[in-house]
C-alpha cells in the first residue's frame, strides 16, 4: 500500500500547482494537505513507518497553519470560502449540495467508523522470538565490541556511579520515554502505534532476564539488527548508535536497571 503514496504526493502537487495558477486558494489548500499526508506516509519506503499519532499531529498542524495562511488577506480568504458558499447557497448547485450532504459526507463518516472498528492486527507469518540470541560481537562506530560475556564497564567506576545514573536518567527522558513511558512501564505516548508494543522495563519478565550486554546490543542496533524470526511488525526502535556514544548507552542501561529495581542477569 505504501507504494501508492508517492502517487498521492504527485496528485496533491498537481492540484496545488493548477489551483495556484488559477488563483483558487480552496483547492490549493486541498492539494497541499494531500501532498503533506502523502509525504508522511511515503516515509515508510525509506525508514520505519511513522507512528499514526505523529502523522495525525503533523496533518492537524498543517490544516490549521495553512488555514491561517489563506485567511491573512481578506480577498484571499473570501476566494477560499467561495466554493463552499457556492455549493451550500447557490440555487444552481442543488444537485452538488444533495450529493455532498446526503451521500458524500455520510459515506465518509461511515468509512472512518469502519476503519476504526475493523480488526487491524495480523499474526506473523512465523512464530516471533521475543528475546533472540545476541550475536557474539557487533561493530559499534567502527569498533568491534564482544557481546558474549560483556558486563557494563561503568559499574566498576563506583566513585562516579551517581553521576553515571544521573546522566542515564537525562538520556532516558530525552530519547526513550516517548515509547517506553515516563514510569518505564511501556506506556509511552507512542505505545499504541506499535505492534508489538514497547517493552515495559518494570517487572521481572523483561530486562531482569537479560544481561546488560544484550540490552546494549538492542539499544545500539535497534530493530534492523534483529534476525528474521524477531522482526517487529510496526516497530520503529531506532539504532541509537547514530545518536548516543558507547558510554551514554551504558549510562542509560544503568539508569533503567536502577530505576526499576532490577538486577542484570549475569553470564555465569
Protein described:
With about 270 residues, the chain is mostly helical. Helix content is about 50%, strand content about 5%. It is built from nine helices and two strands. A hairpin with a 2-residue loop joins strand 1 (about 135-140) and strand 2 (about 145). Helix 1 runs antiparallel to helix 2, helix 2 packs antiparallel against helix 3 and helix 6 crosses helix 9 (about 245-260). It is elongated. The protein starts with a helix and ends in an 8-residue tail after the last helix.
SSE blueprint and pairings:
Layout: H1 5-21, H2 25-42, H3 52-70, H4 74-89, H5 94-117, E1 137-140, E2 143-146, H6 161-175, H7 177-180, H8 212-221, H9 246-260
Antiparallel strand pairs: 1-2
Helix pairs in contact: 1-2, 2-3, 6-9, 8-9
